[in-house]
Amino acid sequence: MRPTISSSNPTRRPGLFRWLAVLSLSVLLAACGGGGGDSGSSAVSSSSTTSSSSTPNAQPIAATASNTVSITVGPGAQNFVNIPNVSVIVCAPGTTTCQTIDNIQLDTGSYGLRLASDAAAQILGSLPVNTSTSGGQLAECTQFADGFTWGTVRTADVKIGGETASAIPIQIVGDMANSTVPLNGCINGSNESTSRQLGANGILGVGVSVTDCGASCTAALTSNYYSCPSGTNCTAIGVPVAQQVVNPVTKFAVNNNGVIVQLPPVTTTAASATGTLVFGIGTQSNNTLSGVTSFRSTGFGNLSGTYKGTAVTTIVDSGSNGLFFTDSSLPACTSTFTDFYCPASPQALSAIVRGLDGTTATVNFTVNNAQTLASSGTNYALNGLAGSIGSFPTLFDFGLPFFFGRHVYFGIATNGTSPYVAF
């Protein structure tokens, strides 16, 4: 999951391995320019000996092949800006009882499919709740800085584009009573249990990890999972990796070793932007790894780097709707925009990205005034949107504006291969 900042409720939550701030356009006024074209605000130059990175002028391929699905950055489910959405078909395992759920946020900073229960009402009763090794209903709590998500783990067939992941564990958010929340585990803030609170009808985590927790959740002491006998009295429990919420891409038949996120250039603002999510890397003629620089990452997609002489942990995260980092020289916006930067004029900046293999690149980017970007109330694709990282001063989050005009690859750590990010 990820954090949200709404202009009507300016709180912030760090996500599973990411940050997100959300501006709700429903209450923003005034006018702002729009349109597409060459971004010019996210150029990359490689200082490694590998191939140079793709430029921010790249266009997405058409989402016509079976290993593709369309990405839309638009109003989405809740009128939030810079939210990349896809459609997912969720079915009762092995049946034709299905529901198509639109406006699922595409998130390269988390792993697994999570659906808001109110958005999945049509199919919810047909999805079996998984049981723990002790026989209780299996549930999961996902923590944020000032909020959490809580709900059951269920089994579903998941279809995205022409790909299918059969009988996989997914999480349903908000399908359990507040009284079942384990107070010793879900300790941060409020229960984010609806599509409104999530800012989307669900979240599709397609980052570089296979599962959402891995080895740490096999022990009860460090687990996100709970056993709930008869749906109550929930206690922490270790869950085998094979039963944890899984990255659906890893369960596709062939195109299962990664994804490519492709979005068109956005000059400054646009009413919407349409791109393509491509499944698989080097498995088809439309997903070759070429013309980019690869950076080996940690198992959760973390890179390192430097910003203005300070060492930072770097993430590349489509689930964050802005660029988020600490820079005291950039003025904060006023009123409800205080978590975003509002410089008087566009600021040209750069950061160094470094992989675990030593590969480095300099990423040039521009920070625009967030209030000006969002002032029209009708533009949902905003380039140069940036904000403060708050309590994480050594984290640099390349959120959605980084993706405009790029093909960004996320290689999943499967079959002994090292995870990587490439652009």
Q: For the largest sheet, list the strands in their spatial order.
A: 3-23-22-19-20-26
- Residue fraction in strands: 25-35%
- Ends distance: 24 Å
- The structural class is mainly beta
Shape: globular
Number of DSSP strands? 28
Query: Averaging pLDDT over every residue, what do you get?
Result: 87
Largest sheet: 6 strands, mixed
Low-confidence stretches: 1-41, 49-54
Count, helices: 4
Radius of gyration: 20 Å
Q: How many domains, in number, for the residues?
A: 2
User: What proportion of the residues is helical, as a percent range?
Assistant: under 10%
Walkthrough of the structure:
It holds the Pfam family DUF3443. Residues 40-55 have a biased composition (Low complexity). Residues 40-59 are annotated as: Disordered. The chain has helices at 121-124, 195-198, 370-373, 400-403; strands spanning 13-14, 19-20, 44-46, 68-73, 84-91, 98-107, 111-116, 137-143, 147-160, 163-173, 190-191, 202-206, 225-228, 235-236, 258-262, 269-270, 273-279, 294-296, 303-307, 310-316, 323-324, 347-354, 360-367, 381-382, 386-387, 395-398, 407-411, 420-422. The protein is mainly beta and 423 residues long. It has two domains: 29-60 and 257-422, no CATH class; 68-251, Cathepsin D, subunit A, domain 1 (Beta Barrel). A hairpin with a 6-residue loop joins strand 5 (84-91) and strand 6.
